[in-house]
TrEMBL record:
<dbReference type="InterPro" id="IPR004367">
    <property type="entry name" value="Cyclin_C-dom"/>
</dbReference>
<keyword id="KW-0131">Cell cycle</keyword>
<keyword id="KW-0195">Cyclin</keyword>
<dbReference type="InterPro" id="IPR048258">
    <property type="entry name" value="Cyclins_cyclin-box"/>
</dbReference>
<dbReference type="GO" id="GO:0051301">
    <property type="term" value="P:cell division"/>
</dbReference>
<dbReference type="InterPro" id="IPR036915">
    <property type="entry name" value="Cyclin-like_sf"/>
</dbReference>
<dbReference type="InterPro" id="IPR013763">
    <property type="entry name" value="Cyclin-like_dom"/>
</dbReference>
<comment type="similarity">
    <text>Belongs to the cyclin family. Cyclin AB subfamily.</text>
</comment>
<dbReference type="Pfam" id="PF02984">
    <property type="entry name" value="Cyclin_C"/>
</dbReference>
<dbReference type="GO" id="GO:0044772">
    <property type="term" value="P:mitotic cell cycle phase transition"/>
</dbReference>
<dbReference type="Pfam" id="PF00134">
    <property type="entry name" value="Cyclin_N"/>
</dbReference>
<dbReference type="InterPro" id="IPR046965">
    <property type="entry name" value="Cyclin_A/B-like"/>
</dbReference>
<feature type="region of interest" description="Disordered">
    <location>
        <begin position="38"/>
        <end position="92"/>
    </location>
</feature>
<dbReference type="GO" id="GO:0016538">
    <property type="term" value="F:cyclin-dependent protein serine/threonine kinase regulator activity"/>
</dbReference>
<feature type="region of interest" description="Disordered">
    <location>
        <begin position="1"/>
        <end position="23"/>
    </location>
</feature>
<feature type="domain" description="Cyclin-like">
    <location>
        <begin position="282"/>
        <end position="364"/>
    </location>
</feature>
<dbReference type="GO" id="GO:0010332">
    <property type="term" value="P:response to gamma radiation"/>
</dbReference>
Amino acid sequence: MERVDENGRGVMEPANFPDMGSRRALRDINNLVGAAAPCAYASRKRGTPDKGSVDDQNPTSVARRPMTRKFAAQSERKSQAYQQGTKEQHEQVRNEIHYNPPLPSTVSIEMEEQVDNSDLKEIEMAIETAPDIDSCDSNNPLAVVEYVQDIYSFYRQTEVTSCVSPDYMSHQFDINEQMRAILVDWLIEVHYKFELMEETLFLTVNIIDRFLARMTVARKKLQLVGVTAMLLACKYEELSVPMVEDFALITDRAYTREEILEMERLIINTLQFNMSVPTPYVFMRRFLKAAESDEKLELVTFFIVELCLVEYKMLKFRPSLLAAAAIYTAQCSLRGFKCWTKTSELHATYSEEQLLECSRLMVQFHHKAGQGKLTVVHRKYSSHRYGYAALSEPALFLLETGH
C-alpha cells in the first residue's frame, strides 16, 4: 500500500514478512545511528542476487541484504543513471580510483578550504547588495521597514504611469510652455501661502500635466485647471483641506465655486480617478535617506527640484531620475566636487553618468534662478525658514567639458 510522506512523495509501506528464522537483524545494514557507513553496492537488476557487504566479524563472509521493493527501485534508478554516463566519464572515474594515489587527509582538507574560500570571494564580488539603511527605523511602525523595499519596487514599476509625453504642448491650440511655467510658478506661491505639505505641490503639478496631455484647454481656463488640481491634491494628501471658496478667492474670484466643482469632475473623470502616482517627492525621501542627508542638503535638494517643476523640458525625465539628479546636484553644490556614493547609486539604481544630463540642466536653472520674472522658488528658498538654500553656489564645474 502506498502512503504519502511529509514531502509529498509516494513511499511504499514496509511489507509484512513471515518469520524468516535466521534472517539477519536490521542493524547489519547500517540503519542505526552511529553505525559504520554503508559499502557501495554494485548496480543490479531486480531479482538478481546482491553481493552484500563485508561482515564485521568475518571479513571473508558476505552479508545478504534483503531485496525490498524500495531498495530494488533505488538500485534500478542508480543503474540507469550510471548507464547514462559517458564512456569518458567512466574511464576518468576508473583512472582516479586505480591510478591516482590519494593525498594525505590534511593536504586534501587544506585544498578544499582554499577552493571553498575562493568560490565565496567570487560570489561576494559578483553579488553587490545595497546596504541596509532602515535598521535605525526598525522600531518605528510608520517607517514600515518590513515592506519598504516592496513599496519602492512597486513605485519603480508604476512610475511610468505618472509620466506624460514631453511634447504634449504641441497638441494644445491656445496655451504654450511659457503659460504652463507661469501657472506652476504662481501655484508654488499659493502652496506656500496655504502652508500645504510638500507632497501636495508635486501631485498638483502632476495632475495638471496629465490632464493637459489628454484634454485641450483654452487660455482663460488654464488658471482654473491649476487651482482645481491643487484642490484635488489637497483632498488626497492633506489632513485639513482648504475650502473651495479659498481657491475662488485666491484667483481674485475669476472663477465661481460652481466652475471649480465642475472642473473637478472633469479632471477626475479624465484621469479616471487615478491620484495614486509616484512623484519625485516619494523617491527623494528614500534617496535622501540613502545619502545620509542633513537639513542643508535636504533644503537645497528641494530648491533644485522645485525649479524643475516650472520647467516644461524636465518632463522627459522619470520621477526617480529627477529625484536622484537633484540630490546629486545638491551634493555637488554644497561640497564643491562630484559626490555620488555607492550606497546612493545602489538604492537609486542610477550611476553618476546617467545623472549628468539631468544634473547639468539643474545647474543652469540654479544659476539663473534669481533672474527673469519667474522667481517665486528663488524667493521662497532665500528665506530663513528654508535655510537660505537658494543662496548656495551652483555646481558650475559640472557644465565644464572633461569633468
